[in-house]
């Protein structure tokens, strides 16, 4: 990627508003992680992009898997008496949006200083600042950072428990092609 070569590894850039939150981040040496609802694209990381595949045999397998995690027969019996495949299906359906909304998102760019739309959108119409980060200084903090992929059409992500246990996370790293000028990388943290 030309942008990475131009910026030079291991640098990331974060365009920020000139406000008290940004000043607090700098003064107290932290990175703000926004809730999904605060991202500027309402479709970005939406739980509506997750298609929960409610295949009965898969749910039954997942139910058995959960039950077998308990070693004592007493606990297994309790699961059988108080929990069902249908309840598990309902639990998962309700858990997907909660899981997504429990993550904070920090957005970075590979593009240094020169991207006018980034200055406009994320740095208070060119009045804010651009912070430069060197990932080498805190490898543990930046562990898990991933590049966002851009698509002409954002299809639903099919999710089947037990088979695709981490597939829900993909929703954070996919955006419409119209945002590709951002050359974005993202870091997630549990709120």
What's the number of structural domains? 1
Task: State which percent range the strand residues make up.
Answer: 15-25%
Backbone structural class: alpha/beta
Q: How many distinct beta strands?
A: 10
How far apart the termini lie comes to 32 Å
Count of alpha/pi helices: 6
Helix content: 25-40%
Unreliable stretches (pLDDT < 50, length at least 5) are none
Query: Main beta sheet, described?
Result: 4 strands, antiparallel
Q: Element order, helices and strands?
A: HEHEEHHHEHEEEEEE
The neighbouring-strand order within the major sheet is 2-4-10-6
- Give Rg in angstroms: 21 Å
> Mean pLDDT, nearest integer?
89
Shape: elongated
Fold and architecture overview:
- The protein is of the alpha/beta class and 191 residues long.
- The chain has one domain (2-190).
- Helices cover 32% and strands 22% of the residues.
- The chain has helices at 2-7, 20-28, 56-68, 73-82, 85-101, 116-122; strands at residues 11-16, 34-35, 50-52, 103-109, 129-134, 146-147, 149-151, 157-159, 174-176, 184-190.
- The strands form four sheets. A four-stranded antiparallel β-sheet has the order 2-4-10-6. A two-stranded antiparallel sheet has the order 1-5.
- It is elongated.
- 15% of the residues are buried.
